[in-house]
Amino acid sequence: MSRVDVLADDRGLQGCFKVANIQQEWAQDFITKHKLVTLDDYIYSVANDTWEKGVETLVSQVPTLRDNMIALARFRSAFDIGREALRQAAAPATKSADLDEPLPEATMKSLNQDWARRYNLQLDPSLEPCEALRSRLYREFRKGQLTVIEARKVKSVITVAQPKTQGSVTLGDNLHLEFEKEEGIPIKSCVEYYLQMRVLAHALAWAGNYQVDYEGGRHWMMDLSTVLGYVDVALRSSIEFAGGSMLWLQRNDVLTRGKLATYVNRGMPGSVAMKQALHETHFEWRSPLAAPLVVSSGSGSPGTTKRKQESSPLPVGEAPTKRPRTLKADRWATVSMIKGGKRLCKPYNDGRGCSNSQCDQMHACDVKLPNGKPCLCATPGDPCLEIAAALPATPVGRVVSLRDPLVDPLQRPVDRASADRLRAAKPVAWRGLGDLPQFAWAKPLVGSWLVIDLWAGFSGLCVALLAMGVRFHAVAAENDIFPAQVAEQIMPQVVTVDAVETVTGTMFRPFLQRRQVRGIILGAARPPRMCDPGDCHVFGKRGLYAPRSHGPVYSMDGLPTYPHRCGRLRMGATGACGWVQRPRLLWLGQGRCGVSPRCTPPTAGYGSSLGPIPPSCAGRDPSQSLFDAAEVVKAAGQGAMHPFTREFWHPCDRVKLVPPEAAARFYQDERRFPPLAYTAESLLWRKDEWRQPGPEERAQMMGFPAQCLQAVQGPAAVRRQRQNSMLGNGFHLPMIVALFCLLPGVLSMQVPRPLFDLAERKMQERLAGTVWEPGRLQVFPGLLSSDQVVQSMQRTVFGSLPISANVWQLTATRLAPLPVWQLQAYTAWAVGRGLTGQRYPGNSRKGLDHLRKEEHIKQAVGLPSPFRLREWPEQDVDFVLHAIATWQQALIGYSEQCRQVFRQVCTALLPLDDELRKFRVHSAVKVAAGKRPAVLAFLTVILRWPDLQQPLQMLQGYPIVGALEPSGVFRSITAREALPKEEWLGDAAVAAVERIESSRPPRFAERIYAATVLEQQKQFCSPFLTKRCMDERFGVGQWRPLQRFLIVQPDGKERVIDNARKTLHNSSTAMMETIYTVHLDFIPAVIKQLAHRLQVTSPGDWSVFHPWAHFRLGTDDLPDAYRGLPVCPEHLPYSAVAVWVPQQGWRYTILWGLAFGLESAVVSFNRLPQLGIAATRRCLYGLAAAYFDDELAVEVVAAADISQQALRLLFTSIGAPPQKAKGFAPSPDRHYLGAAIHLGSVMTTGCVRIQPKFATVAKVAGRLRVAIANRCLTKEEAGKLRGDITWMFSLAAGHMGRIAQPVLAKCSSDGPTPMDDEDVVTLQVLLRIVLDCQPRDVQVCGMDKVPPEVIDSWVPRRQQIYPGEAIVALVIPALLPDLLRGQDLLWFVDNESATSTLIRCVSSQCDVHEIAQFSHYLLNSLDARAWFEWIDSESNPSDGLSRLGLADEWTQAQGDEEKLQALVACSLQFLQSMSDWD
Known about the structure:
Layout: H1 13-19, H2 24-34, H3 39-43, H4 51-60, H5 69-90, H6 105-119, H7 131-143, H8 157-161, E1 166-170, E2 176-180, H9 190-207, E3 211-214, E4 217-220, H10 224-242, H11 246-265, H12 270-280, H13 282-285, H14 346-349, E5 384-385, H15 393-396, E6 400-401, H16 416-424, E7 448-454, H17 460-468, E8 471-477, H18 481-490, E9 495-497, H19 509-514, E10 519-524, E11 567-570, E12 585-590, E13 593-594, E14 624-625, H20 629-634, H21 660-668, E15 684-686, E16 689-691, H22 695-701, H23 716-729, H24 733-741, H25 743-746, H26 760-767, H27 786-797, H28 805-815, H29 825-833, H30 853-862, H31 875-887, H32 891-908, H33 910-916, H34 922-927, H35 933-942, H36 950-956, E17 962-963, E18 971-972, H37 981-984, H38 987-997, H39 1005-1017, H40 1027-1034, E19 1042-1048, E20 1054-1058, E21 1069-1070, E22 1073-1074, H41 1082-1093, H42 1100-1105, E23 1109-1117, E24 1136-1141, E25 1145-1150, H43 1159-1180, E26 1184-1187, E27 1190-1197, H44 1202-1213, E28 1224-1227, E29 1229-1232, E30 1235-1238, E31 1247-1252, H45 1254-1270, E32 1272-1273, H46 1275-1292, H47 1301-1306, E33 1313-1314, ...
Parallel strand pairs: 7-8, 7-10, 8-9, 17-21, 19-24, 35-36
Antiparallel strand pairs: 1-2, 3-4, 5-6, 11-12, 12-13, 14-15, 15-16, 18-22, 19-20, 23-27, 23-28, 24-25, 26-27, 29-30, 30-31, 31-34, 32-33
Helix pairs in contact: 1-5, 4-5, 7-9, 9-10, 10-11, 11-12, 17-24, 27-28, 27-35, 28-33, 31-41, 32-44, 35-36, 43-44, 45-46, 45-48, 51-54
């Protein structure tokens, strides 16, 4: 047996030195000099055949050990001992290997010292674990193979010291076999079992007394406080909930330690796994013992004896003894007789079982309910479900068995229709207009939940849960028809009932029989009641006369009547979010315990310095709030608006509390709201005009989507009143989200991931024949070994750097034991499919030229829709989808293994990264000191990535001008000829600097200066330098600065842009490739592709065949972006920026990172996220994408964030960790690239909904209104409007954003540009389109003569064929709206000019321009999309019809003459009406 413990963190390095009697100082100097981490580093640092000489060389390199022969001898001894230990560890395990074998002496001594050093605890011998138990647990911890040890086999030092029982077996006449019997410890009581748990707890703490790395931190494998806390909780729970039942304690203990072993074997530290296991079994430990636990006769459980068979004879002379009655263990009060004299059978209820076949007593549960009546369920002792303690005793206040018939025992009517609807209901998804609020600080609850929302209003609780990303089913009780209609429109999956009293516990049984939920969330508003004279908000309400009051008298607001039972927590007033006050006192707690002091609201976002929530509120007009919401946040809510209330005729008793001007406004507005709501800070102002916030603005301030109440019907004033009243009855959504962030703490648990049944056999069948088939990747030809990876990194990536051979050898040694093959599954998959490269070629053609009419129709019908979702062209996306379809829910564990391997690889590459630091240039030290080029090189090699220059450029900088070498990642283009340096530098550079020096300060000079100073503080650029300093540093005429201007982004953030186009930097750059980026169709495309792989043909198939799937989106943002990549020293003279410094004039600063505005920076930066996304997909199985620095993670597997975890791990490992403040956890409703994406309906309707954010719509509409009112536009306003419109309509409405291009193009002067009537009409049309913009649902399944008067209105031309061909696109949507509504159209036009105009939606000819505008307007109003293609006249089926009408022979041969004549008549009538248009 080896004396060295190779399972230790250092693989036994220190233990080996101790065995060889090497002094601590010698060992420390030796390890420090050679950077040894493990025993493998020491043993494999020298050649095996000349190891003595090699050890001598290593020792001689340590100054303090040179010429020390004693030290040399001992290090040789240590080498010999360590080599033998590693050999034994690598040898195949024999069948006789025993985990109970005592640990090596050195290991045991070291562990005992660590125990004494940390705990200094002397255990009683009866509670001190034996050596065999400690050795077993230590080996299991180290190997990650923890087992569940039976309590009767847990032995202490005292138990082992007791003499063993001898046994003897006769094998023959003269042959006897004697042996020691292995007997378990008899356990007969709960206390005895507890003592065994204490012994095991001490053994676990002793064996796990070391730290391990997990999820970026150091954790104890097991600590004594955690495991003893578990043991004490187990004993207390068994006494409190099970009456001291030993069998109950044993059952839950085995279950908990089984989950502990599961998580430890998955790589989780024992201290973390124990907490997770307790969270998993939280409800089991608190489930009362409903019936005695009976042990089967063959179980052999401790403390039990087998019952004798009744047929066994009694001993002679002994009378039969009466078996004592088994008492009920639940301690419930019972009933003996029901009304009518019918008795209840007691043997049937107390566990004995009624054996009398002639029993005339009633076989039903005899438990006495709180109302005094018996339960009478059919299965006494069956685990029952208590819907919620706060539900009223009359409707739901009873225990309901899941196996009872659907009949209420209290003889109340059961709403069977609602029960059936709930059973068939789908998870709730957002289907309303607008987008849900986004909270980076709110983490969604894991698992599926059931929500019971009483007096629900428009179900604001469900909206809040959707905003958090919670998956749930919901029942909402509301008898007011208008809020119910709103809820039905925005969340059609919510099961609505019209009366609270119909919500009974029985109606939930069919749902719970079908679904497994993590928990039940009960929401209840305060029902209207008699008014409190001191409450000004409820005067004028109908109180108990309102229909809502005619229900059970209780409410959640009743909690203050027993504050001694609940912890009192005052959440921060909602004014801290910056908009409106909504103070609330909330009572949270569990049972008799209050909220722990550690249970606090989320401080990372709710009412914090990050800004108002929501960041902004957009209205339908330019009115602005009198206060600054950001300042209100800083003032902790002081200055926020008065709480929103219902809109009705308010009393005037509180007028004396407000200023006179507020009182005047109160009466002027017909007393719609309380007087305090008319103070200046509670109104919206435009100069001296004021008004109350409208329903959309109130909804935004309360955190709800602005358009969530669009379903309310009625006249304008009544509709507004109903909407305001609904919001006044509601709550502040961010506060509720913050409340639910506390839910895990309130329950004294964290909501765990559900453990799936992995269906092992089916999974093995799916894995068969794939690259993941067990044992296949290890032997797959062509995969790189760790040595080959290191050699490739040395030769192809860092070949130009003089890196020491020892560093490469050390790197190879550290990588050798790691399963690098596991990260190369994509390569094997691609080889198996015969694939190479990253993207499909884009050389397809759509046109159908020069065909005959019949052939063109035949070919056109066969063409697929140009709007169809195609398979995503990147092969690694298909690889991830293949992995998801193969592994399904088991991908959770497998992906975690891959992430763990990648973490180990990154750790193994640390010495190489340390060596590479010395090669960083100055600019890389400034902006890329945290980047890890060694990890980039590793990924480049194992992915066979074509971009071999990126790791080296991360050290030595990126070029920014000149001819840039292609990376091989993006699409190749023909490079334009770059401006020669001699024309750009020299005299031209001197003249450019002189022009800057003599120019005036630019616009926003002070803000540009402030932004530059902020960048200097971040070390993105150098201190300010004068022109003379720059000349001395780079030479006169050898440097050329960029000129900087400032833009304000849509979110209000100011960004400085360096105008490389004006300074000719871009003209001096020759690019040989152009980037490609992801677009929003990536999301529905990959979902449809996965559905095809899983053979999902209808939305219902997801829940039936793939319940493990749950689609969500997570987003992240990379830090620093361009600034995080260094500029190479040779190009620093061209990376200077001119900035106007107040009181000093023009100064220059050198940008160490890439500048915004450089053409080369776009390609250079995108190389990094492209590599990161590829590695995320290919190595870590994350379904991810990137648009510049905006990262997207698509989650498929429920209760696991596989893609986002992989994405964050990957970019953190390469030194670019995503920003926490901008990272949003996966949720079905997320914002990405300026759009709101909704995935909640994928499994119900099969649609992905994409729509512009409401803030974008409101911003564009506001700017259009201002431009129309002023009849002029400045150059800056036109530029902002053009960008916003183009981006907005690219999401859903195609070409509509181009309508205003001619108008906006006219505004090119610095001052305001006036607009004529036609321009105003164009903007009015565009405004109407913006306001009517509809969401886009992506499924994841000309022939008349134009009247002369119309032609006369056109621009005079020699021939009018151009507008005549274009007008068909206007006529057809007007005549056949039902035919085109909601369709995708492939439209052929045989006039090239008309085709071009319809595609671009722009024409220099005003008449054709208007035709194109209104054509697209009609198509947009019909929710139709058109793809226009050119067709030659010979192939055009309608060509003869347009020339000869119905006399055309080809047309006559097609039939349907009556329909054609009717269409001709309608067309003539429509065209005639065009002459009357204004």
